[in-house]
Amino acid sequence: MAATPRVFQRLARPPPHVLTRLSHPQPWRQHRAFQTRVQSSGVPDYAFAFDIDGVLLRSSNPLPGAHEALTYLQRHRIPFILLTNGGGKSETERVSELSEKLNVELNVDMFVQSHTPFAEMHEYKDKTVLVVGGDYDKCQLVAKEHYGFQNVVTPGDLLCAYPDIWPFSKVFMDYYKSFAKPLPKPFNPANPAESLKIDAIFVYNDPRDWGLDSSILLDLLLSSQGHLGTLSKKNGDASLPNRGYQQDGQPALFYSNPDLWWASSHPLPRLGQGGFRVAFDGLWKSVTGGAKLEHTIFGKPYQPTYEFAERRLRAHWKALFEQVGLNDPLKRVYMVGDNPESDIRGANEYQSPHGSKWRSLLVQTGVYREGAVPSCEPTVIVKDVGEAVRWAVEDAKG
Ligand SMILES: [Mg+2]
């Protein structure tokens, strides 16, 4: 059985009457734990970030206490955001589904999913990017219509234009033809200046067709300057760094989510986007004889995602209290999650550029179950999101 963190023994095991009160939303307001810490200005100096699956929802159903916890924070104007490694739909669509399920009014600016940070990668907005993963063309629509990327190509577009790019996917042609669009340019290895050039690869969501997607990724990462159908002459040149691999203007590669597994209704977890990534890493090593593969991974537990989340949180704080200055410190941020490897590790390792201290609260309503030893030790283990909020409100007084 996991050792219970000392701080939990001290604060997270309240008297039984408190737990009884927690099951009813009204007495929350009366209990002293919910007399929130505010600065003399009346502005709370702490905030929350909540994971969604296993914390607020399970198999798309609201978890007990989720509605009450979020309603309590809204009533007391304590800022919070939702921070998930999920994705594959626009933030607007996801927020409206979530608002309905939890019966809480949520704003799209309070919501960060795995690919939301791609929206701020302005350097690629007028370039041509490949968007990989997700159902149909949903992710490319997010990139184009919500994030403002002007030229988006999908593996399905390439397959429909050039079915021999991965002949084994011809059996799925009806699916691809239902959404594929013409390429902005043909690819013509003989005349690179007139040929389709891909400047960046964004894996938005779990790839559906690993054979097609990994073949196209491999082609691009071995190409000259991102021109499909070419092979860089630098590949394998031992006089160059990384033996010449990825030294010839190939597109940068970004993943949105590192999770190896995800929980579906199947009895065993299923491979997620992280599964595709490690499979592709193996392929890359075999093809290149062990060259390094440069790439960037977003999503929890990585620093860029927490930095992005903190920016959103600070903006939300400022929107709630206009007297908050741009450099005012948010003293503490409480990350509430069910996954030790993503939610908890991310919060524990995060280095806030604003000097905020992040604390991690592990709930037992999702991936982590009572009695297991968490792979990353949280600040505290709590029963559910209601207990997490109550613990944090008390802790924030200290
Ligand atoms: Mg989760």
Give the topology:
Blueprint: H1 6-12, H2 16-22, E1 46-50, E2 57-58, E3 61-62, H3 66-75, E4 80-83, H4 91-102, E5 111-112, E6 128-132, H5 138-146, E7 151-153, H6 155-161, H7 173-177, E8 200-203, H8 210-221, E9 252-255, E10 261-262, E11 270-271, H9 273-288, E12 296-297, H10 303-320, E13 332-337, H11 340-349, E14 357-363, E15 380-382, H12 385-395
Parallel strand pairs: 1-4, 1-13, 4-5, 6-7, 6-8, 8-9, 9-12, 13-14, 14-15
Antiparallel strand pairs: 2-3, 10-11
The structure holds magnesium ion.
Written account of the structure:
- The chain has helices spanning 6-12, 16-22, 66-75, 91-102, 138-146, 155-161, 173-177, 210-221, 273-288, 303-320, 340-349, 385-395; strands spanning 46-50, 57-58, 61-62, 80-83, 111-112, 128-132, 151-153, 200-203, 252-255, 261-262, 270-271, 296-297, 332-337, 357-363, 380-382.
- By secondary structure, it is an alpha/beta fold.
- Strands 5-4-1-13-14-15 form a 6-stranded parallel sheet, sandwiched between helices.
- The longest helix has 18 residues, at 303-320.
- It starts with 5 loop residues before the first helix and ends with a helix.
- The protein binds magnesium ion (MG).
- Magnesium ion binds at residues 51, 53-55, 337-339, 366.
- The site of magnesium ion has 8 residues, from loops.
- Pfam families: Hydrolase_6, Hydrolase_like.
